[in-house]
Amino acid sequence: MIAPPTPPAALLEFDACIDLNQHNTPAGIAGEEAVRRVRAAVEDLPGAAWVSVEWCAPSPSTLSWLRLFRRGDGRERTEEPAFQDLRERITRLVRAGGHG
Questions:
Q1: What string of DSSP letters covers 34-89?
Q2: Which of 19, 45, 75, 91 suits a disulfide with 65, CB 3.0-4.6 Å?
Q3: CA distance 46 to 62
Q4: What confidence tens digit (pLDDT) does each residue in 77-92 have?
Q5: For residue 6, what is the enclosing H or E element?
Q6: CA of 27: how far to CAs of 5, 18, 72, 90, in Å?
């Protein structure tokens, strides 16, 4: 007997708030150029909805520069495995200057 196909995973729709600075972006990319590149890369991710990217002073918290929310929810997601995977993916995009 042939097993039925596995249904596709539900698309994780998310909102993101990203604060960029010289500590989380590659050398040579800063300000509006970094904002433009990172915003475009994150908006291209499947499930991206509202994406805010700003260049600002470094935060004393190492995690607070990237906040993720289920689309339209307004509650930051940190513990769910899908959001942890998404955080890692976005972190790699930021550190690569928006090239993934």
A1: HHHHHHHHHHTSTTEEEEEEEE-PPPSSSSTTEEEEETTT-SB--SSHHHHHHHHH
A2: 19
A3: 25
A4: 888 899 999 999 999 9
A5: none
A6: 46, 18, 34, 18
Strands of the sheet containing 14-20, edge to edge, are: 48-55, 14-20, 66-70
> Positive or negative, the Cα torsion across 11, 17, 19, 20?
positive
Looking at the DSSP bridge assignments, the partners of residue 51 are 16
List pLDDT tens digits, range 6-48.
555 578 999 999 999 988 888 888 999 999 999 999 999 999 9
What's the rounded Cα separation, in Å, for the pair 56 and 34? 11
What's the one-letter identity of residue 87?
R
The residue behind tokens 């509202």 is 50
- HSE-CB of 76 using CA atoms within 13 angstroms: 9
